[in-house]
Amino acid sequence: MHRRKGRQEIIRTTMGTVLAALMCWGSANGQTADTRPAFEVASVRPAPPYVPGQPYQVRGGPGTDDPGQFTAPRASLMSLLATAYGVAFDQISGPDWLETEIYSVAAKIPPNTTKDRFNLMLQNLLAERFHLTLHHGTKDFTQETHTLAPVKSPSNARRGLESMVWLDCWSLCA
Q1: CB neighbours of 86 closer than 8 A, spacing ≥ 6?
Q2: Based on CB atoms within 10 Å of each CB, which residue in 12, 58, 98, 99 is the most buried?
Q3: Are the C-beta atoms of 58 and 72 separated by less than 8 Å?
Q4: Using CA atoms, how far apart are residues 86 and 116, in angstroms rounded to an integer?
Q5: Residues 64-94 pLDDT 10s
Q6: How far apart are CA 162 and CA 90, in angstroms?
Q7: What are phi and psi of 101, to 5 degrees?
Q8: Nearest 10 degrees: CA dihedral of 133, 36, 111, 72?
């Protein structure tokens, strides 16, 4: 009987330790999910029709005279993606409407946000609002094709190819 009581005590202690560890892991795991950089407040909506003479340039953001506010009154998803990921338009693959659908974006930026952190915030905003899934990869091009951001790799150099970072947005069609 004494042995059985000792075994039950060990099991109870072990179960308590496991339960406590799971609770700590769960709360820590939940905290890391909220650490994705985000704007304080952001609005993304279809842009109003074009009005000649109206100013439509992108304004604000880190490194500008208005670092606490980002405004893009008429921006294609293509230009927002290029800004967010620091790539050229020809490095983005996707449906034609990436260039034709126009959006109005306004975002309040937390103080002391760096350009890199701003880009992450914009990436997260686009992923959230457009259910964007990103596929990083490379595509090979012949040397006759000129790219804006070529990356030479030893294996491609032997074959006379250049590769570049490629942002694949075709999943937006699904």
Answers
A1: 119
A2: 98
A3: yes
A4: 10
A5: 999 999 999 999 999 999 999 999 998 888 8
A6: 14
A7: -75, 125
A8: 10
Rounded CA-CA distance 157/134 in Å is: 27
**Token digits of residue 20:** 């406590």
What is the rounded distance in angstroms from the CA atom of residue 16 to the CA atom of residue 25?
14
Please tell me whether the overall predicted TM-score, pTM, comes out greater than 0.70 for this model. Answer: no
| 117-128 pLDDT per residue, tens | 999 999 999 999
Q: Letter for the amino acid at 152?
A: K
Question: If pLDDT is split at 50, 70 and 90, which confidence band does 171 have?
Answer: low
Give the amino acid at 123.
Q
CA gap 32, 47 in Å, rounded: 34
Question: Quick one: pLDDT band at residue 132, thresholds 50, 70, 90?
Answer: confident
What residues are paired with 41 via a beta bridge?
Answer: 108
- Token pair of 86, please? 């620091």
- Strand, coil or helix: what is 79? helix
Question: What is the chain's mean pLDDT, rounded?
Answer: 75
Beta strands per DSSP E along the chain: 41-46, 59-60, 69-76, 92-93, 102-108, 135-142, 161-168
- Structure-block tokens of residue 67: 């670092």
Could you give the C-alpha distances from 150 to 113, 154, 157, 164, in angstroms and in order?
Answer: 29, 13, 12, 5
C-beta of residue 93 within 8 angstroms of C-beta of residue 134: no
